[in-house]
Amino acid sequence: MLRSPLTAFLQPVIPPELLPYLLVVAGVGVSLAEALAPGAHLVVLGVALLAAGLVGLLLGPAAGPVVLGVLVLVFGALALYGYRELDLYGGKGSGKTSDSASLRGRTARVTERVTPTEGEVKLSEGGGFNPYYAARSVSGEIPEGSEVIVVDPGGGNVITVESLDDALDDIDRELARGRRRRENGGGDDGERRGDATESETETETERA
């Protein structure tokens, strides 16, 4: 019996019995992607796909495309709740890797010599499943084992770091400049007050 083109088009390209397996594979792949690039918000999707696929395998023939779609939505909502409220990365509300911008200001230790073109660091805390990040220095080389601070998260994939000693030196220099400005400002005020006193004395002398 010949089928119309519309009927042939509506036939599923992938057999329904293979859909749970595809969801499991996709869930594992997305979860691995989150492990390699923390902060990419992929963990929710990975958990939803993986859980829906596993339940689909248990349901067998009853797990049609519609059922699997509903399962993905349900597990996605649960995973999102756990991701935000329970904060699976540690510490409610800390959001250590929920946003790559939160990496700014974090300290890390150099595991591979960092230069403006290559290197790797390990975050002191946070970092999701994988605390190791590809890193680039602001300038010069930073040897292995040095403490650094993240100055540019760079989207969470390649971060820009600066030696912690250099960063502290910059802060010390800024504080010293502030102290000098305050001292100079105080001196100027004293001179102005002295000039005003002398002028008043001269005026009183002339009147006398």
Describe the structure.
This protein is an alpha+beta fold and about 210 residues long. It folds into 2 domains: about 15-85, no CATH class; about 100-208, OB fold (Dihydrolipoamide Acetyltransferase, E2P). About 50% of the residues lie in helices and about 15% in strands. The protein contains 5 helices and 5 strands. It has helices spanning about 5-10, 20-35, 45-60, 65-85, 165-205, and strands at about 105-110, 120-125, 130-135, 145-150, 160-165. It has a 5-stranded mixed beta barrel. A hairpin with a 5-residue loop joins β4 (about 145-150) and β5. α2 (about 20-35) packs antiparallel against α3 and α3 (about 45-60) packs across α4 (about 65-85). The chain is elongated. The N and C termini lie far apart (about 130 Å). The relative contact order is 0.09. The model is unreliable at about 5-10 and about 90-100 (pLDDT under 50).
Q: Total strand count, please?
A: 5
Instruction: Give the SSE order as H and E letters.
Output: HHHHEEEEEH
Strand residue content:
5-15%
Biggest sheet, spatial arrangement of strands: 1-2-3-5-4
What is the tally of helical segments? 5
Second rung of CATH, namely the architecture of the largest domain: Beta Barrel
Average of per-residue pLDDT values: 72
GO molecular function, one term: peptidase activity
Transmembrane segments: 42-60, 66-83
Region (Disordered): 92-122, 175-208
Protein name: Membrane protease regulatory membrane protein
